[in-house]
Amino acid sequence: MAYLHAIHFSLEEAQSMLAEVIPIVENIRNAKRRLDEIGYDIRGHHFFAGMGTNGTKPYPDEVSKLIKLFRGLTTKGILVKDMDRGLIDFPAIRPNGDEVYLCYMLGEKTIEYWHGIEDGFSGRQHVDSL
């Protein structure tokens, strides 16, 4: 069976990584908040009108920080889904062979939810149903 992701995690593997991953996700959320505060559009790669550094540099330091933080997660196979909420997904394979995401959001104690590749956050189901 062909899968979208090369790296997959068991629930236990993903849970064991949380202590390492949570501070990274917190740093991503904080860097994104700082970019919002200074008026930088991370998606458009520019400052909003009337904001910015007046041409002193092309982008804020937080952009480089975000790139480094993202790489720290993506090289492990972890996907950042929402910087503001601190939402990440760990690709996984269900016993029936379906590829799914184990879903974690900052503030949750453990990974308690999963969802299908196409379902997104609104389709989250408790891990008991994996």
Number of domains: 1
- Note the gap between the termini: 19 Å
Poorly predicted sequence stretches spanning 5 or more consecutive residues: none
Structural class: alpha+beta
Query: What percent of residues adopt helix (DSSP H or I)?
Result: 25-40%
Number of helices: 2
Instruction: Output the strand order for the largest sheet.
Output: 3-4-5-6-7
Topology pattern, helix = H, strand = E: HEEHEEEEE
What is the typical, i.e. mean, pLDDT?
90
Shape summary: elongated
Q: Nearest-angstrom radius of gyration? A: 17 Å
Number of strands: 7
Report on the biggest sheet. Answer: 5 strands, antiparallel
Q: How much beta, percentage-wise?
A: 15-25%
Supply database-style keywords.
130 residues, alpha+beta, five-stranded antiparallel β-sheet, two-stranded antiparallel sheet, 2 helices, 7 strands, 22% strand, elongated
Describe this structure in words.
There is one protein chain. With 130 residues, this protein is of the alpha+beta class. It has one domain (11-48, 55-129). It is built from two helices and seven strands; from the N terminus they run αββαβββββ. The strands form two sheets. It has a five-stranded antiparallel β-sheet. α1 (11-38) runs antiparallel to α2. The longest helix is centred in the first third of the chain and has 28 residues, at 11-38. The chain is elongated. The mean pLDDT is 90.
